[in-house]
Amino acid sequence: MTYFSLFSFLIRIPAIAILCIMVLLFTAGYIQPIGCDIGVYSGLTLSTLLPVKPQKLTQKERANFVLSDDLRGILIGLILGDLHICKPKLDKNPRLMFIQGLIHKDYIDHLYDLFKSYCLTAPRTVNPSPDKRTGKVYSVVVFNSFSLPCFHEFLNLFYPEGKKIIPLNIGDLLTPSSLAYWLADDGTFSKLYSCVILCTNSYTLEEVNLLVKILNDKWDLKCTINKDGKGFRIRIPSKSLPVLQELLKDKMPSMMLHKIGL
């Protein structure tokens, strides 16, 4: 090889490398999902949260994913709370989207540890546009799962027509783990009244009545319903705290035990 030929070959290497990088960047685009509500996180675009996976699972690989009984119970509670199930336009299988405020990063890290086998990337912080009501930016931490057939069951149960509902057989689905993670997401402890409040404002009165009946029938928590603006909340009274704490003290994530007064 002549010196001139060797020189020509060497200068082509950086150009080839740059071309490869451009191809990788081009293929790492985003898809736009449908049928997903991000609730209070105003200004948070779903295209920001749901990037296309850089690796593609085969149908056989997707079919091999199953949920343990414990994770199924936890997932039921999370769906009752803040978790969203999405079905992107270009994907036949649903995926899970986990969102928490930055203040609860330790909690969402815990959720990722539970579900990381079903996910590609770790949680990341997202700064959405300012909230329309307050003008403030509320940073959130998010991660999402692979799109998998094993999530269809939960999509059909809770989103039969695209909007989250309470399935009529929720009593058969709810476990102590479900209640623990539901409270971790949507529960709050009132120090003034020594009671636990479940924020069920997004559900109808009929659905809240059903949830109260299940909680009382399964664990005798003596729940009542409190009107809250246009919505309804579930109140677990102070006399039921010992029962609730004994039921959940080994089920709830440690950073959320304060929600049941521990």
Features:
262 residues, alpha+beta, Endonuclease I-creI, 2 domains, 10 helices
The CATH architecture of the largest domain: Roll
The number of helical runs is 10
- Strands, count: 9
Helix content: 25-40%
What would you call the shape? globular
Number of domains: 2
Structural class: alpha+beta
Radius of gyration: 23 Å
CATH superfamily of the largest domain: Homing endonucleases
Main sheet summary: 5 strands, antiparallel
| CATH hierarchy, class of the largest domain | Alpha Beta
Strand content: 15-25%
Mean pLDDT: 81
Distance between the first and last residues' Cα: 77 Å
Q: Which stretches of 5+ consecutive residues score pLDDT under 50?
A: 1-54
Question: How would you characterize the overall build of this protein?
Answer:
It is a single chain. The chain has 262 residues and is an alpha+beta fold. The chain folds into two domains: 31-165, Homing endonucleases (Endonuclease I-creI, Roll); 167-262, Endonuclease I-creI. Helices cover 39% and strands 16% of the residues. It has a five-stranded antiparallel sheet. A four-stranded antiparallel sheet has the order 6-7-9-8. Helix 4 (69-80) runs parallel beside helix 8 (176-186). The longest helix is centred in the N-terminal third of the chain and has 25 residues, at 3-27. The termini are far apart. 29% of the residues are buried. Mean pLDDT is 81; it is low at 1-54.
List the helices and strands and how they pair.
Layout lengths: L2 H25 L5 E2 L11 H4 L9 H5 L5 H12 L3 E5 L6 E7 L3 H11 L8 E3 L13 E5 L7 H7 L11 H4 L2 H11 E4 L4 E4 L6 H15 L4 E5 L2 E6 L4 H8 L14
Antiparallel strand pairs: 1-2, 2-3, 3-5, 4-5, 6-7, 7-9, 8-9
Helix pairs in contact: 4-8
